[in-house]
């Protein structure tokens, strides 16, 4: 997700539905690792790391328990500022307008608000040219009959996203990847904010990621090298 959104240590990264903060912690590790690899002196590295920890990571979570977990998770991993806001993201996003230029998110499935609404509002309040990578049910984006894509609200937000932003890439993910939504087929969509369509959307099939489901064990590595080759195919 971090790479898909073209993140770097210079990014301002938001997770508007951050849960326990997993995306933010992983992003922090990646950002600090990049800084450590720069050919600069230690003082400059420390200043850049300080900037990441103070200004580079933001999270919003409406559930008090999860927000507290995220706050603790970030602080335990070295983020002394921990910009975790205990709020509804639809209330908080306008206050964060143009603060962030990257967003990594996994909006809650099958809730009151449509998954694409979370993505649209995140895009609307993002810097021009910023990038969102989000995990969504594949029913949100397919046009086939009898999918969520035919629901009026879903059609509304899909249209708004495509009219105002640029869909860069869609990656179809393996089945049974996420618990407790193991039965929901998912995809990662990557979208650039406030930019016009300029080239064909990349489509990648990652249904087979090289892991197999083993009873009482879960997902185990099987043929990862082959799966990487499959991933390079840009079609469903």
Walkthrough of the structure:
The protein has 236 residues and is of the alpha/beta class. It has one domain (13-207): Vaccinia Virus protein VP39 (Rossmann fold, 3-Layer(aba) Sandwich). The chain has seven helices and ten strands. Strand 9 and strand 10 (218-221) form a beta hairpin. Helix 1 (22-36) runs antiparallel to helix 2 and helix 5 packs parallel to helix 6. The radius of gyration is 18 Å and the shape is globular. The two termini are 19 Å apart. The relative contact order is 0.12.
List the quaternary state of the chains. Answer: single chain
Shape descriptor reads globular
Mean pLDDT: 86
How many β-strand stretches?
A: 10
Which second-level CATH architecture applies?
3-Layer(aba) Sandwich
Largest sheet: 8 strands, mixed
The CATH topology label is Rossmann fold
Percent of residues in helices comes to 25-40%
First-residue to last-residue Cα separation: 19 Å
Number of domains: 1
What percent of residues are in strands? 15-25%
Secondary-structure-based class equals alpha/beta
Q: Which stretches of 5+ consecutive residues score pLDDT under 50?
A: none
Rg over CA atoms, rounded to whole Å, is 18 Å
Strand order across the largest sheet: 3-2-1-4-5-7-6-8
Count up the helices: 7
Question: What is the helix/strand order?
Answer: EHHEHEHEHEHEEEEEH
Q: In CATH's first tier, which class applies?
A: Alpha Beta
Task: Please describe the structure with a list of short key phrases separated by commas or semicolons.
single chain, 236 residues, alpha/beta, Rossmann fold, 8-stranded mixed β-sheet, two-stranded antiparallel sheet, 7 helices, 10 strands
